[in-house]
């Protein structure tokens, strides 16, 4: 059985600033900490998938600079196989992350650099890899036409397709119909459906609407409340895991998506795969950083056995 996960997305270097609050325009405040590390939704998801024990390939563009070197080392350490091109005419992406010290909540600005020009032609160059995946994942940090084209190739090749619609954006007609799973968080679900998600009942209504819009199955991630799975007119709530104090929530959604994709690729049923993804995310929020916070398969399995 093919267990390969292939992910199209963006790598960025995360520059994370921790402070009691965000500054107002024109204001300077003193911070409590700074960290530089690897990030980007697609790259984080690839790291999470690989560390969860599954063969994982990541498709993107990099510059030729220090941040590109960081990306290549991150993937080598995690066991991700890069499927990349490198370009002299632009920079590798970077992100500003503000972390609220008291809660661990975050706000992020992403500049994708050369990955912002990923094109359908780049996707065509990796068509065989995408077609032969067990699970294909993409998000919306790279251009929409590239994501759409990749989903089409994955669907035609028989791969299970996952769209993580982040950051929130208006989707082109027919995109959700290419998705075996769509995995928004509460904010992204509201952006797609117009339904504010503040409760499980709201999440169910939003999931029903996303199904009506074309998605075969919907997983709405709910932060500390876990995730809601909806397919075939039935909804299942999967609770988050108690793993101790939250240090940082940045990257939790990526941890979930990477873990979920890895679990599906190994043949787990969807609800069990959602539980695996929730365990992956629950561990990640107890650590600083995004890619560095992704847990190993041993850690995930130990948590699943305890709870």
From TrEMBL:
Its cofactor is Mg(2+). It holds the Pfam family PfkB. SUPFAM superfamilies: Ribokinase-like. Keywords: ATP-binding, Carbohydrate metabolism, Cytoplasm, Kinase, Magnesium, Metal-binding, Nucleotide-binding, Potassium, Transferase. Residues 7-296 form the Carbohydrate kinase PfkB domain. Requires a divalent cation, most likely magnesium in vivo, as an electrophilic catalyst to aid phosphoryl group transfer. It is the chelate of the metal and the nucleotide that is the actual substrate. The active site is at 254 (proton acceptor). Its EC number is 2.7.1.15. This is Ribokinase. The lineage of its organism: Bacteria, Pseudomonadati, Pseudomonadota, Alphaproteobacteria, Hyphomicrobiales. The gene is rbsK.
